[in-house]
Amino acid sequence: MSQSSLPDAAGIRDRALSELSTAGDAAARQVWRNRYLGRQGEVQKLLDGLKTVPAADRPAYGKAVNELRQALEQAWEEKGGEGAGGAVAAPGEFDPTLPGRPYPSGAVHVLTQTLDRIVDIFHRLGFSLADGPEMETEHHNFDALNTPADHPARDEADTFYLDLPPGPHGRWLLRTQTSPVQIRVLEKRKPPVKVIAPGRCYRRDEVDATHGLFFHQVEGLCVGEGIALPHLKGVLEFFFAELFGSGTKIRLRPHYFPFTEPSFEVDVSIPGRTFRGREWLEIAGCGLVHPKVLRGVGIDPEKHTGYAFGLGVERIAMVRHNIPDLRMFYENDVRFLKQFTYDGAV
Ligand code: DAH
Asked: How many other C-beta atoms are found inside a 10 Å radius of the C-beta of residue 50?
């Protein structure tokens, strides 16, 4: 066996151990590990050289390299190995121990979340979804809803009329309420009808914390034989208790809407909550569908009766989440939006 065919295992070991003892931090130790024990490190280079060693010398050569590797691995483990101090990859190397980069996921807007919740509760009560256009006719938005020409809502100053030639149903406008969907549904379908119609509405309001140029409503309509006030009250009681929690109470306050008779405003009282110091908060409008409205769509009010209601989605979201200002819904400020996601991400 010739001396020259054996590796200088002792020399490499001494050098490696002295270098490791001065490797100050995890990064330096990782560099050391790559240099000696890495895939192209010193030990591997010696192993690669095995094939050029004369056959007779190979066992001794292999043994020397193995002992070297064991000595270096032991020294590495004693220094903390991959663990303590956190292994750090050499520049350009993949380090599987690093935490993943956060990847922010998108989320449903808080108004849509609220709407989904509303729709879900009404689905369970047997309502199906209906839809109508945001660009409406004067007939559907007003006349068919028994809203006379001198009603203030029809004023130029309150409504966005469109600069289009009037059609068979009068002038065009951006609907001021979702109630015209009642008409659209009853024009097409015969009772029994039980629908909700969520959607956007537009009004020329002065913009402030509780008014915008547009907002969202959910319209409800149920028409059938023998439909009466207790049905309406039962549905609203169930709905608001589901939405705001058990113990939530409602009361119906007599009011006026042109398309219902009698008409009511709905107030809610939620356990443990006050609204500007008051127990009751106005949250919806409702009533029994006016006989004129039914007759207008060819339904005999002696045979079929119905109830209707309208809810404001923004107002409900504001109550659910204690949001003080309606404008926050539309500003798209992530600091606001991310508060309504499951993990704080947007
Ligand atoms: N459309 C009404 C509004 O915008 C709300 C409303 C009140 C809808 C009573 C209804 C109802 O269906 O029965 O103020």
From this structure: 13
pLDDT digits (tens, 9 = 90+) for 280-319: 999 999 999 999 999 999 999 999 999 999 999 999 999 9
Sheet holding 214-224, edge to edge: 128-129, 193-202, 214-224, 305-312, 281-289, 260-269, 249-255
**287 ligand 1 Cβ < 6 A:** yes
Q: Which atom of ligand 1 is nearest to the CA of 307?
A: 13
Counting atoms of ligand 1 from 1, which one is nearest the CA of 219? 12
Is 260 touching ligand 1 by the criterion CB < 6 Å? yes
From residue 99, how far is each of 91, 96, 235, 343 by CA, in Å?
Answer: 17, 8, 50, 18
Instruction: Give CA–CA dist 173/201, Å, rounded.
Output: 11
Whole-number Å distance between alpha carbons of 316 and 89: 52
pTM tops 0.85: no
